[in-house]
UniProtKB/TrEMBL annotation, chains A, B:
GO molecular function: ATP binding; homoserine kinase activity
Domain GHMP kinase C-terminal: 214-287
Keywords per UniProt: Amino-acid biosynthesis, ATP-binding, Cytoplasm, Kinase, Nucleotide-binding, Threonine biosynthesis, Transferase
One example of a Gene Ontology biological process annotation: threonine biosynthetic process
Reactions listed under catalytic activity: L-homoserine + ATP = O-phospho-L-homoserine + ADP + H(+)
Root EC class: transferase
Residue sites binding ATP per the record: 92-102
Protein name as catalogued: Homoserine kinase
């Protein structure tokens, strides 16, 4: 049995356009790292957090990583195990890229591995959802499930929890731009209308059925045609600077699709080449700079593996 | 070039549970037959209709078969071709099983074949939709597309028309019961609420994404878990005698799923064996008999081929 481990877990794009609340996928970069040591002294302590500008709690009861590890240890029947955690934030907080999820998933993957993997990644999902509950106010799975499983993931149902791993075509790249403005998840959720027209819902479920079909058929054009959101995006895009201009720039540059990541403010485009993804991120970042808004950009294929052990 | 042809086109189940307005599939039985002859005299005539109890118009301008054939001939550039049509209704009208669609599709498949197939089955869909417009008041595709293409079909979008043929597992059987009561399609549509809760729409699109995934993965249990409709069925089921009792009987007898076909009153169950499908149709039919309601029953695998040429 190992005494220490270092784990990377990936960022994720949730609320994938027409797949609001049910569809997410993981990317190779960015992501977070957790270093975990078994220690003599009973209980969980957060030894160090880097890269968070002091924004995350060191109190083990309040930190999402330690809190979800605690749930896990209780479940496993080892509530008194001594654990020291270092969290290295390598991605921005509040970006809409599943920042809390990446940290939580790295922590759970680490503890499960230290204990010789009593649970499968799928079985870790409910524990990671506990972390999301602490971070966002509700225990959603559309970031943690793709972060744990890799790839595209459908949350068909929460009660009972029913998670389906979907395939995707090779050669689909993701261009991400995080405009550095604040869009708290809670506010972004509260903006959304509670009632919608049935005919709009029908359009949306035609599109999600088309997107899922496109993923299985590895039909990138169908994926692109289906990635439209007439219900949530029109509201959420209001909080994102120059959203429709960014979309226009991406689509005119050859993107397959463009949308909001999670509840924003990050946006993402699918592209058919890595070079096209780089071109689009640079073009959008330059535009944001011209508006006086700094941004971070990421280019990555869709992540296939979920968390990985480093070193 | 042939001078006459006899074509069978299959019945279809549209509005497949969580796939309201976007998903349909074809069955092997029942269905309709069209006999078509080329004649000297210019124009389209309906020579004979059998099996309709005199309910369908012999006027070629009002009959859905001749009207859609007329649209087709205009498009093909042969508006004056002499055509005589016999329509043999082998399935009930107003059953929710795509009765008008089966007739229209048989007619279009027949004329296209007589002219050596200038159009593909997919290209015939818009002409068949013209027939549906005449029959139902709006030109929907979720009966005619599966009747033309066979199998499960997704109508992702109407503008532009985007139709995707979906796979399905072998060994999935369909048990259909048509309780002989009247549920006009127009009334059934008007009952549906125009606005729905977003959270219910999310549940629905999680389920349609699950159903589409199940079809691709050939996962019959996932198909069954996903076939739930919380938006339309609760309203439409009111018009169907003892709907929830029929569901209970089907599910307790081992059905994979149960739902309304089209706008009803027919209901259908998916089963894993033909014997189970037969058992369920008989059980439900007996129950309806005990309520004083006569019914017709059909057992069939999912149709893979669309229309076929007879003789």
């Amino acid at each position: 049995m190992k005494d220490s481990i270092k784990v990377f877990a990936p960022a994720t794009v949730a609320n994938v356009v027409c797949g609001y609340d049910v569809l997410g996928f993981a990317v190779n970069a960015p992501g977070d790292e957790v270093v975990m040591h078994r220690v003599e002294k009973s209980g969980i302590t957060i030894k160090k957090i880097t890269g968070d500008d002091g924004r995350l709690p060191l109190d083990a009861a309040k930190n999402t990583v330690s809190a979800s590890v605690k749930h896990y240890l209780n479940h496993i029947g080892q509530p008194d195990l001594g654990i020291e955690i270092e969290l290295h934030k390598k991605m921005p907080i509040g970006s809409g890229l599943g920042s809390s999820s990446a940290s939580t998933v790295a922590g759970l993957f680490a503890i499960n591995n230290l204990l010789d993997n009593p649970l499968t990644p799928m079985e870790l999902v409910p524990f990671a959802m506990k972390g999301e509950e602490l971070a966002c106010g509700y225990g959603h799975a559309d970031n943690v499930a793709p972060a744990l499983l890799g790839g595209f993931v459908l949350i068909r149902s929460y009660e009972p929890l029913d998670i389906i791993r979907l395939p995707h075509p090779e050669g689909l790249y993701c261009a991400i731009v995080f405009p550095e403005v604040d869009v708290p998840t809670r506010d972004a959720r509260q903006m959304i209308r509670q009632k919608v027209f049935l005919k709009d819902a029908v359009t949306q479920w035609g599109n999600i059925a088309g997107l899922v079909s496109g993923l299985f058929l590895k039909d990138i054009d169908l994926i692109g045609r289906s990635m439209k959101d007439i219900l949530v995006e029109p509201v959420r895009s209001i909080l994102i600077p120059d959203f429709y201009k960014m979309r226009e720039m991406a689509m005119e540059s050859g993107a397959v699709s463009f949308g909001i990541s999670g509840s924003g403010p990050s946006v993402f485009a699918f592209t058919k080449t890595e070079a096209n993804a780089s071109f689009i991120t640079q073009k959008i970042a330059s535009h944001l700079t011209s508006l006086g808004i700094s941004s971070k950009t990421y280019v990555s294929p869709i992540n296939n593996n979920g968390p990985v052990i480093l070193d």
